[in-house]
Amino acid sequence: MNAHPFLRLSKAALLTAVLWVSATAQSTNSTPSQNSITTRKIQANDIIAIRVVGETDLSMERRIGQDGSITYPYLEELKVAGKTPTEVERMIRDGLKEGVLVNPQVTVDFKEYVKEFVNVTGMVNNPGRIELPVDRRLDLMDVLSLAKDLSPKADKDMIILTRQGQPSKPYKYKDLQNNTDPEKRIYVEPGDQINVKERIF
């Protein structure tokens, strides 16, 4: 028994829609600044792009002031420094729901951001500043890899991490290498100093 022509058309239309959605999702996920994968927090002098679907007057770019705030229509001043783009989306969406829009669709992304670094010194093959990416966190092994790994003179048991306001901590290369649990990795923060000591023969 042959299927009804309308049913065949519906199935074809459904398949086309599924393929289109899949392609769209893949294209979206390939965007480096997609805020769904952004863990970096907003700070002074960053520029964020705010988009409200169907509302051109509420879609704009804002530079973060030195006090960590921006101005925004209807909501006046918003303190956004120290928050992720997703958290700011929620702030704006909740604010606009209060008598402005019924169901606002808000996205917030980084337009420009202040670059952040850690500094690697000592017995690595390429010492210097390592820029931190906006879309993911780096751990100590990532940073050492970007510094072209340890030099032959390195003391693999004396990788020293110094963070502002905290005492320095030594780490062993083997322990860092064998740690495959993302929850237990040693993630770096902006301004961290990593020093690899020289091996004493």
The general outline is: elongated
Kindly state the percentage of residues in helix. 25-40%
Low-confidence stretches: 1-37
* Sheet with most strands: strand arrangement: 7-6-10-8-9
Per CATH, the architecture of the largest domain is Roll
The name CATH uses for the topology of the largest domain is: Outer membrane lipoprotein wza fold like
Largest sheet: 5 strands, mixed
The level 1 CATH classification of the largest domain is Alpha Beta
Spatial extent as radius of gyration: 24 Å
Instruction: Quote the average pLDDT.
Output: 84
**Helix-strand topology string:** HEEEEHEEEHEEHE
Q: What gap, in angstroms, lies between the N and C termini? A: 85 Å
Strand content: 25-35%
Q: Main traits of this protein?
A:
single chain; 201 residues; alpha+beta; wza like fold; Outer membrane lipoprotein wza fold like; 2 domains; 5-stranded mixed sheet; 3-stranded antiparallel sheet; 4 helices; 10 strands; disordered N terminus
